[in-house]
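Give me the fold.
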Amino acid sequence: MQIDFHKTSDDEHTLQVRRADGSNERAALNSRSFLRHDLAHFAVELEVPLNEGYWGSVARGVAW
């Protein structure tokens, strides 16, 4: 799965995921509320590793 974060303004970012099966999702989010939270989930799940965590669920097709 590919995860892309793009700054769209000082207050918002766009999050897009592209799964191995070719499906994708995209959302515009408030950076103050979500950016650090999403990145923290990613870092912890990558390091531990947790395949059943949040990003693992998204990779399997669970909509956020």
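The mean pLDDT is 92.
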